[in-house]
Amino acid sequence: MTRNLGSLDRTLRILVGLVLLSLLFVLDGGARWFGLVGLVPLLTGLVGNCPLYSVFGFSSCPLSGRK
């Protein structure tokens, strides 16, 4: 799998994912499950590949750092 996320992009996605997942513990009722949306940026940040970036041919990864 080709990486298409740079280090800053990955770091921001992981942080946003963790913040969104924390909503599971902060919010009450049915709204708390919106925190599961945080799994998407967290997983893409950890893996280093965003499927939407691949579809649109975008990459925030420097050319020399792709693997």
Structural notes for this entry:
The chain has 67 residues and is mostly helical. It has one domain (7-58). The chain has three helices and no strands. The chain has helices at 7-26, 39-47, 51-56. Helix 1 (7-26) packs antiparallel against helix 2. The protein starts with 6 loop residues before the first helix and ends in an 11-residue tail after the last helix. This is Inner membrane protein YgaP-like transmembrane domain-containing protein. InterPro entries: YgaP-like_TM. The chain crosses the membrane at residues 12-27, 33-58. Pfam families: YgaP-like_TM (PF11127). Keywords: Membrane, Transmembrane, Transmembrane helix.
Task: Give the topology, please.
Blueprint lengths: L6 H20 L12 H9 L3 H6 L11
Helix pairs in contact: 1-2
**Poorly predicted tracts of residues:** none
Q: Give the helix tally.
A: 3
Name the beta content range.
Answer: under 5%
Q: Give the fraction of residues assigned to helices.
A: 40-55%
Query: Which structural class fits the helix and strand makeup?
Result: mainly alpha
| Sheet of most strands | none
Question: What Rg is obtained from the alpha carbons, in whole angstroms?
Answer: 14 Å
Compute the separation of the termini in Å.
Answer: 8 Å
Shape: elongated
- How many distinct beta strands? 0
Oligomer: single chain
Average of per-residue pLDDT values: 90
Our count of domains comes out at 1
The helix/strand series, from N terminus to C terminus, equals: HHH
